């Protein structure tokens, strides 16, 4: 998964994958069938892991709005990490594949839908607490957050400064109401 996440599908060579997994070519094909099948498994694993982590963070957050703030600002923390920012594997894949592979497009769509669902839960929690205007459509706001997160992570990969990402994250939070 790390190889695909850092390099993308097209740039991830079979040798990169074999080296990362420390297996032989025959073991690779016996276990995964093909690079494409492995990639599909990686997308599913990434999605499941991210949703699980996001739900745990939402449960532990003091409020729905604070969870949203932390998530939006998380792109800024990628800029100051030891490694170059990787963005989101699901959104990176959406950009790389541009809908030209139906199986991958379905996996990307499921990922985006599940991320939206987590954000919708956070927004509804914030609406119930009076932190976000209850008259606003939680589903639309959740899609806005997914779109903004994708943009922030992409800009982090492009080298946007931490403070600029934090500023946009705060503006996005304000736009939620």
How would you describe this protein?
By secondary structure, the chain is mainly alpha-helical. It has one domain: Orthogonal Bundle (Tetracycline Repressor, domain 2), CATH 1.10.357. It contains 9 helices and no strands. The longest helix is centred in the middle third of the chain and has 27 residues, at 102-128. It is elongated and about 60 Å long. The model has no long low-confidence stretch (mean pLDDT 94).
Overall structural domain count: 1
Fold-level CATH name: Tetracycline Repressor, domain 2
Radius of gyration from CA coordinates: 18 Å
SSE sequence, one letter per element: HHHHHHHHH
The CATH class, by name, is: Mainly Alpha
Short synopsis of the structure:
The protein is mainly alpha-helical and 177 residues long.
Give descriptors for this structure.
177 residues, mainly alpha, 9 helices, Tetracycline Repressor, domain 2
Per-chain topology:
Layout (H helix, E strand, L loop, with lengths): L1 H6 L6 H8 L3 H8 L2 H26 L3 H16 L9 H9 L4 H27 L9 H20 L4 H14 L2
């Amino acid at each position: 998964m790390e190889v695909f996440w850092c390099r993308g599908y097209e740039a991830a060579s079979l040798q990169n994958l074999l080296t990362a997994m420390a297996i032989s070519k025959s073991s690779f094909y016996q276990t995964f069938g093909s690079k494409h099948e492995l990639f599909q498994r990686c997308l599913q694993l990434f999605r499941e892991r991210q949703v699980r982590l996001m739900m745990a963070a939402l449960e532990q957050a003091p409020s729905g709005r604070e969870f949203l703030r932390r998530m939006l600002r998380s792109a800024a923390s990628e800029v100051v990490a030891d490694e170059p920012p990787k963005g989101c594997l699901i959104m990176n894949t959406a950009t790389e594949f541009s809908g030209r592979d139906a199986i991958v497009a379905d996996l990307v769509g499921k990922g985006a839908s599940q991320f939206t669902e987590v954000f919708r839960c956070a927004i509804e929690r914030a609406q119930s607490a009076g932190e976000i205007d209850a008259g606003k459509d939680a589903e639309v706001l959740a899609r806005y957050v997914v779109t903004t997160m994708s943009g922030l992570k992409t800009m982090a990969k492009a080298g946007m400064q931490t403070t600029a990402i934090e500023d946009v994250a705060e503006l996005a939070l304000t736009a939620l109401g």
